[in-house]
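forwarding from the other thread:

> can someone predict this with protoporphyrin IX containing FE?

sure thing
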Amino acid sequence: MGGYAETFVPGSILTTSAIVGILSLFWIIFTREATPLRKVPGPFWASISKLWIFQKQRGYQRPLVDIELHNKYGPIVRIAPNEVLISSPKAFRTVYGAGSNFRKGEWYIGASTCGWSGDDNLDFLTEQNIEKYRTQRRAVGPAYSEAAMKDLETQLDSILEKNIGIMKERAGQSVDLDLFFNMLSSDCYSMATFSKSKNLIEDDKDDGSIHAIHAAWRYMHIVGYFPLVHRALTAIANISAQQSTSLRHMINTLFPFMERENRGNKPAARNPFAFPITQVASRFEARNSSSIDPKAQEYPKDIAGKLFQLQAEKGILKDHWVRNMCMTNFGAGVETTAIVVGCLVDNIVSHPRCQEKVHAELDKATKEGRIGKIPKLRELKEELPYLNACLMESMRVHPVVGMPLVRTVPEGGVELEGKWLPAGTTVGINCWVLCRDKALYGEDADEWRPERWLEYSPERLKYLETYNVSFGTGARSCPGKYLAQAVYTKMIPMLFQDFLWSYTNPEAKKMLRCTFSTRYIELMMQWKLRG
Ligand code: HEM
């Protein structure tokens, strides 16, 4: 046999194989034995290669994977040669708490358009320069403040009233839960941002933006683990944008999610983001062509108008920052809000007697004149405690983000869960794990029990709020929190006031799909008119 190999396998292949074998052995010995992470438990293959986590990501079940890993290995688990998961509230405080200097992990590169966000860009999700980040957040902050949301009520009321009317006409229609709430949410965000609806519910179809956002996240949630691959693909896409149509066509076919970058920000007939791009462009045109000084101009009372106003008053905001923020409302707000609302409907329908209680509470509050047909922003929280408890419980048992919020251990390293982690280690907590922590929520933390939120004392609620990761946490928490809350707190009571929800096929198996945000796919539901 040996003679056979010598005859047919060239020496250079044998030499190369030997070198690869020796290097692999060195790598395994290094990652297993010569780094402080050797003491962190976890699957063997995860400790030597990122391919392990790559394989897991491809299954789209990341929240369940992470829960299982902690059940098996404990509060700290190594999931890649340089990455660990943590789970305890104490470790959470160290990494994300006040004054923490853990910056965002490299995974976020996969979500950026140019490696990391460029020098003059506004891209909150991926920004690494904290000073620049703070300046930009301060500059746009007033447009997204809780107080500012009152000005959006008129826009939200009108689109919700219109769409609820359409739903009444279509009672009995069976819809894909995820797509339906994405369309409803998209109509709301277009009204909140530009006082103009996309009318996706009326047209009963996606304008391409919902599909495009899902495709983008599908790409980003995997490529984030391989930042070099993303950089290379981005470079190719950018080159192709300036090169031949056939090369561009090839890239778009292979990587449809790259199309956005190929097109730059020009509105195009097929561009799924043509709506916000065109809307912002026409606002710029109106401002620039006006003979009135921008500071003295009157802007619409929507998010775009507020950003223009801030820009005119303070002068810090650049035109493309305003445009990026408007786009962010769609890229970051539509899908996430659809998940919050869709999962709430699913949870209420799937738990016996829950919908009955929600209806009874709504009927009582309406009869007593405590809520209107179109609820005011505060009414869900103040007048509908049970429905509000269901919302909190739904966001706890099904947080929108199902992947760890990764951060990088700063200079000097850190000790977490009794293990030493050197500077540069990637560390993260999965919201799904923290939200099921028994020390926080009790022994029944895995169960759906909305009543828990009505039983907690005010002190307990305040304490738990410090571990509420629904909108991220610390300095890098979600800038769109109040906007999203405004959209869904108005929408939710309206969905139950007139409708009784049910599954189209109660026997169908639910399929979870995590691509950073976590939704159910192909879950068909229907509503009928009450009473
Ligand atoms: C219900 C809806 C929403 C949910 C559940 C949600 C949730 C989150 C979470 C968990 C994070 C932290 C991510 C991380 O640390 O990696 C985050 C960050 C972010 N969100 Fe939201 N979000 C929602 C709506 C919005 C809206 C409407 C906007 C529009 C401005 C927005 C813009 C952002 C941005 C730009 C970041 C990155 C912030 C940073 O890295 O500093 N989100 N969001």
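Residues 260-269 have pLDDT under 50 and may be disordered. thats all i got for now
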